Amino acid sequence: MLLTDSIGAQVIHRLPPDQPEQDACSALALCGNSFTTPYSYTGSGKILDLNETPCGQGVGSGEVNSVWFRLNVNANGKMIFKIKPVNPDDDYDFAVLNIANTSCSYLKSSNVVRCNFNNNSPGSNVAGIVGLNLTSTAPYVQTGETGGSFCQAIDAVAGESYLIMVNNFGNYVNPNSGSAGFTIDFTGSTALFNSGLPPALSSINALCDNAAIMLHLTSEVLCSSIAPDGSDFSTTAPVDIVSAEGVNCNGNAGYTNSIIINFKSPLPFNTYTLTAQTGSDSNTLLNLCNTALVLPSGKIPFIISSTGITASVNESICYADLPYKWNGISITKGGDDVAEYTTVSYQGCDSTTILNLTVGKPAIQSQFIKTICSYDSYVLPWDSAVSSAGTYIHHYLNNAGCDSIVQQVTVNVSNCPQYVFIPSAFTPNADNRNDIFKPTFQGRLLVHNFKIFNRWGKQIFAAGDFSKGWDGTISGVPQPAGTYIWLCEYQLFDQPLHVEKGTVTLIR
């Protein structure tokens, strides 16, 4: 449970070690808004996900007193953010990892695309703030450096996923203390991020006096979205709900995935249903992106008996979430009664939950290869233009937030020849063969101007577009056969400017 310490004017809400969000695969899902945590984190979770970063000094320079966040990119754009400590003397470092083509279970230093491990000594960063911005050109800020509060922005691409690891290195005034929390604010980002699946009811544990139950959720919710009077819930029990409180919540601050619901008196032995609803605070439970629990589907049955509590829970997941971890059990397929979990509450009473799991259909996999010239760009099927070789992946989501199509495009780049060719004669006799005099080209034109003069040096034709040519007339009047002078100015991609002069013969 949450421990609260006061050190001077600093209030520290210290979470116990090994919180789920301290492991990369259980990262808190954000959506590019502003999120505040009032907690101080200890250790690196049950798994040391990242032992080293480009900003540290060798092995062991990675994850320390950490918490993980995840962002899934829905639309291309710049990613920037600020990490703002509640106490400016707190030292927070961070690393951003692109995991578009890797698993959260196998993170390496090479996945890190931005990091800042500067020492944040007093005065080094204004108000202790670090992050990414649009003016920095540094991808990394090394350990031991002073200043360098910001790394450069990230050009995020739709379909990519990023993890952000935030380390808490303590307080400079009280070096052995924890920290007072921070806000991570994505204001100014132009990329759009997925808000993730809405929270849902997962399981229920009884408290042994049967006058309270503990509700577990599928994801974290904002403590501020829990109505203290318990009005976010109703039951079929004959006893009124009188209050509700999030485990580890500090008033309205923080987040939780467990809620204690208190009743006016102990519940008689029977089977009941707990139903989520809009509370007196005018909302139901909200995840960290303010996505609401879906109504009216938020229901869960439970049994109060002399031997404890039994609950049956229905969950829906995406196919890509398999194998699915549920209360420490690895589940590889959907169905009714696919798993059963029994636990003992801190009061010593048994609680059993049975899982009914619905799994979405597997995504359709689409792959193809496109070869382009080095001077060309290619517009991917999801409207993102690229000009460099690589493999690009896009996830098309259905209404449930699951992948419906995963499209992969491998772009190869070829050094295609570039040239401009100007013929030496043309025959404007309306036979649709060689009737127009104009340059032809292959490649990417950056500059293109074309002019024609008669034998006395008078300009009779000009075009700034090589698709247009001279038809052998002036104001519709056919010109006599003979020799004419042309002047051509052009520049091909990655080549110098050319100015060429020559003659063409008009044949009738």
Explain briefly what this protein structure is.
The protein has 508 residues and is mainly β. The protein is elongated and about 110 Å long.
Task: Please explain how this structure is put together.
A hairpin with a 5-residue loop joins strand 38 (445-453) and strand 39. This protein folds into 4 domains: 3-193, no CATH class; 201-314 and 334-357, Rab geranylgeranyltransferase alpha-subunit, insert domain (Immunoglobulin-like); 364-414, no CATH class; 419-506, Immunoglobulin-like (Sandwich), CATH 2.60.40. With 508 residues, it is mostly beta strands.
Summarize the helices and strands and which ones pair or pack:
Layout (H helix, E strand, L loop, with lengths): L2 E5 L2 E5 L13 E2 L4 E4 L1 E2 L25 E10 L1 E3 L1 E5 L4 E9 L13 E5 L13 E4 L6 E2 L8 E3 L1 E3 L4 E11 L10 E4 L6 E2 L7 E6 L5 E11 L10 E3 L5 E6 L8 E9 L6 E7 L22 E7 L2 E10 L6 E3 L2 E3 L3 E10 L5 E10 L4 E10 L4 E2 L5 E2 L3 E8 L5 E12 L4 E3 L3 E2 L13 E3 L2 E9 L5 E5 L9 E2 L2 E2 L3 E11 L4 E10 L2
Primary descriptors:
mainly beta; Immunoglobulin-like; 4 domains; seven-stranded mixed beta sheet; elongated
Residue share in β-strands: over 45%
- Rg calc: 33 Å
Task: Specify the structural class.
Answer: mainly beta
- Overall tally of structural domains: 4
Low-confidence stretches: none
Largest sheet: 7 strands, mixed
Bulk shape: elongated
Helix content: under 10%
Mean pLDDT: 87
